[in-house]
Amino acid sequence: MTENNTSGNDAYRKALHKAQVELVKFHKHVIENDRKILVILEGRDAAGKDGTAKRITEHLSPRESRIVALGKPSDQDRKSWYFQRYVPHLPSSGEIVIFNRSWYNRAGVERVMGFCTNEEYEQFVHTVPIYEQLLVHCGVTIIKYYLDISRDEQERRLKRRREDPLRQWKISPVDEKALSHWKDYSQARNEMLLRTHSVFAPWTLVKADDKKSARLNIIRDLLSRCEYAGKGGHGEFPDPNQVFLFDELLLTKGVITS
């Protein structure tokens, strides 16, 4: 490892440690004030959702924090109200929950791979803003992140998964088709952002080709959006060129991968 790499890794670890200390302070505030925090992480396959969720919860109280990553719906799930299987996993008072993928599967994988009908999809995009507004009205703070990576970076990460015996569990038939459906996923992402970005639950975009920087900036952004006792000690704000609120104009300016 070069001296520059060593220096960069040391700086990252120090910055991450500082941000995670603030996360612990924030979590203590959440517990003491019965807050309900829901963080949604979305993005293409291999966008870095797993690692980001782990870094957020790494030092939080395991009794009041959870990562939720549901598998494919069962036959019973398909017969139920679409949001029904997610309801039991919503945060209770004093809890932080991270959805590593969420109900937005319907607007991404299900839409692209044909796992839902057009009618089911249209019903979803019409009702999800209402559903999220209801959750906010009932005291749930929703923070939604879309991790955006380039095609070359996705290809590199998927190749590493296939070659690394410790990452074999991450490979799925859907992953294997991700690159061949790149444009389809781009179109589905754009439509999802346009139709589900709201005042109550806006989308925040994250340029995620650099995993470490993305994780650190997501934590900083999360802290900047929430009030808690003793806030300000971390002293760092997210990079506005890497983490920013969605705007329709971004789709035509080349800021998001196409």
UniProtKB/TrEMBL annotation:
Keywords: ATP synthesis, Kinase, Plasmid, Transferase. It comes from the Bacteria. It catalyses: [phosphate](n) + ATP = [phosphate](n+1) + ADP. The keyword Transferase applies. Its EC number is 2.7.4.-. The keyword Transferase applies. Residues 9-229 form the Polyphosphate kinase-2-related domain. Transmembrane segments: none annotated. InterPro entries: P-loop_NTPase (IPR027417), Polyphosphate_phosphotransfera (IPR016898), PPK2-related (IPR022488), PPK2_PA0141 (IPR022486). Uses inorganic polyphosphate (polyP) as a donor to convert GDP to GTP or ADP to ATP. Belongs to the polyphosphate kinase 2 (PPK2) family. Class I subfamily. This is ADP/GDP-polyphosphate phosphotransferase. The lineage of its organism: Bacteria, Pseudomonadati, Pseudomonadota, Alphaproteobacteria, Hyphomicrobiales. The gene is ppk2.
